[in-house]
Each structure stands twice: as structure tokens, then as C-alpha cells.
Amino acid sequence: MQGCGRGLRAAGRLGSVAASRGASRGASCGPGERPGGRGAALPAGPDLRHFLRAPPGPPPSPGPERGAAAGPGTVYLETYGCQMNVNDTEIAWAILQKNGYTRTKEVDEADVILLVTCSVREKAEQAIWNRLQHLKALKARRQQDRLPLRIGILGCMAERLKEEILHREKLVDIVAGPDAYRDLPRLLAVAESGQQAANVLLSLDETYADILPVQTSAGGTTAFVSIMRGCDNMCSYCIVPFTRGRERSRPIASILQEVKMLSDQGVKEVTLLGQNVNSFRDMSEVQFQSAAAPVLSRGFSTVYKAKPGGLRFAHLLDQVSRIDPEMRIRFTSPHPKDFPDEASVLQLIQERHNICKQLHLPAQSGSTRVLEAMRRGYTREAYLELVHHVRDSIPGVSLSSDFIAGFCGETEEDHQQTVSLLRKVRYNVGFLFAYSMRQKTRAYHRLQDDVPADVKQRRLQELIAVFREEAARANEAMVGQSQLVLVEGPSKRSASELCGRNDGNIKVIFPDAEIKDAAGCKALVRAQPGDYVLVKVTSASSQTLKGVPLCRTTLACSTA
């Protein structure tokens, strides 16, 4: 995995510029591999590995505090990190809801608290430890009142730190890795009997394809659809292959079913999610299993052999874009190496009016020497050639990227190479972070984290400043233009303004005023969430466009 992209980075946006993000509480969030399968109930003990290999037994009967009529309990879900974790939250809730659980948005009302966690940086994990300290007091009060409270850690941090989580202060009752959400009802039943329980086995085939996630933001205009799980890239800095396992893709049929369901619910924008979406490979249909492996673009390489067979990302994107012509389609995160020279994905983006003209191209560094240490599989020159190819293929495309400041061995000259790449490409959106070494990664075993913390922070701030300067220039080029905006709701800063995003995924703010309807309605209308509005841009910053609304329209009409 190349990082966690707009959706896959465990932090917010820069200029969107991202420096860090903590929790998105109450509703949301963010491989050394072993074969999959269910784990066993885990009594507290010194060695988890023994219990993880034991076969699962039947769930214990509910304890005396809760009768059968009361149901299994009320759950509060709190998500940290990336949009993959948002999707994991929706999957976990779908499983629990099917098993009789109810849900609350108030932590004090819950008898089950589940934290969906991130491990991509140390800061993300520290946020969970801090949160557990707050929950410690709540659990102590419940015990005094003889009202049991079960606390669970789910996701990447659960996978990485299972023993420490269970043994540290005995606060956590269950631990479930990203591939163990189906086992949550059993784990919770075990915990209700007074035992700790865990399942952190990674799977070679779990995609939750048969589970339709329950959207955590009911009535929302946008949604995220997971198309694959895991990552095989093994970039030297990245923990994701060790916390989410090997790469595997959902069958296309199940993805299309979910997108169709979202369309029927009125969702107007879907983002296809994965750690490396453009290496998608659906092997579920026998007739496509002998298809040739794709050829990498010139100047790109990979640490694994090319994988033949399967339906690829271009086919999926084509099918998804046909479901609803009024639904925008985005995807994140792709890897630069997986845009082959034949450019079928780029051609689709250019041709289809409902596939957003926006691409995430995570660079991570502008120095070829550092890119090699990161095992990214390309040089600075190959990356820039790809950028030129993308801009030639998709005129007006909006570009975003990820960057890491202060990676192992990075010199001032390397840093200046990254600064110059930011200036040369002029991204619209950026996700920039100081390097945080993670155990198990190749960098942890082979490299030295030798850039001092203060130098990392200085370099990060320099990158952020340059990014904002260049993003402001890129956005200022849109002043005077009309942009099609999907309305998301009221602006956070003013109830008299609306907020939405344009095709390039840039935030647009405009007055909540009566406007014409391009469909021919003579009466003036007010835009609502889910409407498309044509907005004339009057000013721009590195993060936001501001403008005046011209009319309400449709995606098809605005394109025509």
C-alpha cells in the first residue's frame, strides 16, 4: 500500500492539506500473512498464539444480567483513521444488527463500545490508548452499578498489538482483526461470560462480499464501497500488508449489487475503496481466469510477479459507471505503477461524464534515491512522465498525492527534490505527514530512522507551505469558471451558505439562495443535499472555492 489516500490516509486533507486527524466519533473512521478462518475464544493467558489455533466452540449462554427477551445489547461504534475504517464500521454494524444488536450514538447508553482503529502511524495508535483511559472511568462506574460494559478494539491496531491490548490494564474484553468481523457476535457472547476473547487471524479470501454494509450516515449523498482488501506492494514504510493481509478482490457482481442499492437509496456519489484499487482482479468467473497479466508502464516495477487472470479494474469501472448516469464515481487509492500504457482506465475517465476527472497519484517523495529505499517501484522521472500522460489524456484533471517527510536516510537534497516535485506538478489536494516508523515493516528491520523529529517537522511544514502556495495557484485558475457542485449540506461556518464538492473533489461554498431550475421549472428553488448546482467561482484559496449559484441542474445536462 502506498499510503492511505483520500480515504485511505489516517488523517485529514491539506488544501485540502492533511497533517493529522484523530477520531470521527460515533458514526465513522482507517501483511505477513496467515491463512484465514475463525479464531477461538481467548481466555486471558500468556500466549495468544496457542488459543488462536484452537477450533471455535459454541457461544456461551447469556449471563444473568440480560435475559433472552432483552436482546444481546446496545452498541456504540467509534471510528478512527481512514475511509477503509469507515467501511469496516459499516460492515461490523451490519453483522451486529443482523444478530439482534441495537445501536446508539450516545456512549453512556451503550453496553458494548467498539473502537475501529488505525495503525498507520504512532499518533493514530496513541489516540486509541488515550481514549481507553477515558473509557476506563466509565467502565469502573458501570461495575459499581453492576451494569456490565464490554469494550472491544477492532481493525488494524487490534491486528498489530493484540497481546498488549488484552493484557494492558485488563480493560479490553474483545479484540478482532479486520478479517474477523463475522465472529463479533460470538466474541461478544464469550466476553459477556466474563472471559476475554480474540480473533486476529488474517484471511486469504475474506472480502465480506455477501454483506451489504449499513451506511453510518443515513440519508447521506455520498458513500464508500470497498472493492478489495489487503495489499501486496510491501512498501518499506507501510504497516498495512501486516495488518490487513494479502490483496484480494470482491466479485464484481457483489460490488454492482451494492452500488445499485446505494443508487436506489438516493446516493449521488460513490467512491470505490481499496489499498491499491487499480490492481483489482476478480477471479470469481472461470472464463476470465486465464486472461493475460497486465504489463506495467515504462519505468515502473513491482516486488511481486505479475498476476494473470481475472476481470480488471477498467472492467469494474466501466460497469459501475453504467448503473446510474446521475451518480458520480470516484476511486482511491491507486498505485502509480498500475496505470498501464494502454490507458483503458484513463480513457474511461475521459469519456464517461459521471466518472470524476480526478486522480490520486501518491508520490511519497520527489527523490529517486528515497523512492528506491521506500520500494515504490518507480523513479522521479517515471512518475513525472505518468503525470504528463494523465494530463494529456484527461484535460483539466485534478490531482492529489501523498508525501512523507523525513523518511529513513532522507537528506536536505532529497527533501528539496520533494519540494521541487510539489512545485512542478501543482497538486489540488495533498496528504502530507512526518515519517513514523512501524514495527514489522522492512524499514524497521533494514533501515535507520535517523532523521531527528525536529527536522521531520520542519521539513513537513516546508512541504505544507509549498503545497498550499501551489494549490492556491491551481485553484485560482478556476475563478470565473462555472463548476458543477454536488451539494452535501450547510456550510459548517455559516447556516446561510451551502457546501459541496466539484468534479475535482475540491470544496465549494456558495450562498443558500433561491435559484433557477435548469429542468424548466418556472418557480425558483433552493438547493438541497444531493442536488447538482452550477456555481460560478468568484474566489479561491488552497482549500476552498467560493462562488455564486447559477442554477440547479443534472449531471447529464451539465455535461451536454
TrEMBL record:
Amino acid composition bias (Low complexity), ranges on this chain: 15-32
Gene3D superfamilies: Methylthiotransferase, N-terminal domain, tm_1862 like domain
Region of interest called Disordered, as start-end residue ranges on this chain: 15-70
One Pfam assignment: TRAM
Example GO molecular function: tRNA-2-methylthio-N(6)-dimethylallyladenosine(37) synthase activity
Catalytic activity: N(6)-dimethylallyladenosine(37) in tRNA + (sulfur carrier)-SH + AH2 + 2 S-adenosyl-L-methionine = 2-methylsulfanyl-N(6)-dimethylallyladenosine(37) in tRNA + (sulfur carrier)-H + 5'-deoxyadenosine + L-methionine + A + S-adenosyl-L-homocysteine + 2 H(+)
Coiled-coil ranges per UniProt: none
InterPro entries listed in its UniProt record: Elp3/MiaA/NifB-like_rSAM, Methylthiotransferase, Methylthiotransferase_CS, Methylthiotransferase_N, Methylthiotransferase_N_sf, MiaB_methiolase, rSAM, rSAM_horseshoe
Cofactor (UniProt): [4Fe-4S] cluster
GO biological process, one term: regulation of protein metabolic process
Domain TRAM intervals: 476-551
Sorted UniProt keywords: 4Fe-4S, Iron, Iron-sulfur, Metal-binding, S-adenosyl-L-methionine
Domain Radical SAM core as annotated: residue spans: 217-473
EC number per UniProt: 2.8.4.3
Domain MTTase N-terminal residue range list: 73-193
Record-level GO cellular component terms: cytosol; mitochondrion
HAMAP family linked to this entry: tRNA_metthiotr_MiaB
UniProt family annotation: Belongs to the methylthiotransferase family. MiaB subfamily.
Matching NCBIfam families: MiaB/RimO family radical SAM methylthiotransferase
Name listed for the protein in its UniProt record: Mitochondrial tRNA methylthiotransferase CDK5RAP1
Organism in which the protein naturally occurs: Asarcornis scutulata
Gene transcribed to yield this protein: Cdk5rap1
